[in-house]
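no rush on this but wanted to send it before i forget. theres a chain ive been looking at and ive put its sequence and its fold in C-alpha cell form underneath. please have a look and point out which stretches look like helix strand or loop to you. thanks a lot i owe you, the record is right below:
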Amino acid sequence: MDVKLVPIEQIVEDPDQPRKGFDEEVLHGLADSIRQHGLLNPITVRPLHNVNMFQIVTGERRWRASKLAGLKQLPCIVKSMDSQEAATEQLIENLQREDLAPLDKARGLKLLKEQLDATNRELAKALGLSERTIGTLLGILELPEEIGGQIIASPGRPPAGAITEKHARSLRELNASPELQSRMATKIRDEELTSHETAALVRAMRETPDRSEELLDQPAEETIRKPVTGPAVHVQHFTRYLESLDLPTLHPGHLRSLEGVLEELLETVALRLQNVREELNEA
C-alpha cells in the first residue's frame, strides 16, 4: 500500500458521500490534535480523469480538520476506482461508525443500491449485513425527513426517549396519517416509550382507528402500560435488555451462545408461568 503526499488544494470532497453532517466542535478538536501531532492516518483518494485533482473516498472529516489546522499537503492512499467501487468503500467504512446517523446510512444504501442495481439481499451479501438490517435502514427513507433525522443508532441500550430504528418500523405504519405519525414521534420522546410499547400503541390505533386521537392523548400508563411491582420489575428490565440487543452486529459465535441460552430460558419461563398461574388459582 503506497502512501503519497498530495497538495491539499488538489483534493475535493465527494458530493455523494453518505455522511452529510460534521460536528464543528469535533472537527476543531481534531484540528488541534493534527496541529500538534500531524495527520497520523492517511485518507483514501481516487484520481479524477483529465484533471490534476483527487476525490476523497474515505477520510473527509480528517481532510476538513486538516484544512482547519492549516496543513498544505496530506498523506493519501491513491486508488484507481470507479464511482461504484468508491461508494461501496465509503459505505462500508461509514457503516462501521457508530456516530453515523441512520438517515445518512439509509441514503448511502439507497445510492449504492441504485448504482449496483441490486436487491436488498444482494446488497446485504456485498456489505456483510443481514437483509433485515438493510430493509430497516432503507425503511427510514419512507418517513418524513423531520422524523427520520431524529432516529439514532442503537448498538446497545438507547437513552430513554430516543427514537431508534425499531421505533421507526412502527412509525412507518402511520405513513398514511402524517399528523398522527408526528404526534406519535413526540409521544415516544415525551413519555420515553420503548419500541415494544410503541408497537403496541400503533397496533391499537390501527385496530381501532376511531380511537387514535384518544389513545395519543391519554398517558401510556393508562392505555398500554400495566403497573409492574415486585419481582416483575426485574423481569421487565431483562425484557427491555433483550429488546435492545442489535442482533445483526453480534458475532456468529455470540449468536449461537445466545440461541442456546434463550432456548433454556423459554423452558424456564413456561415452567414459572405455569407455577404462577397455579398459585393464583389457589389464592
Q: What stands out?
A: The chain has a mean pLDDT of 86. The radius of gyration is 24 Å.
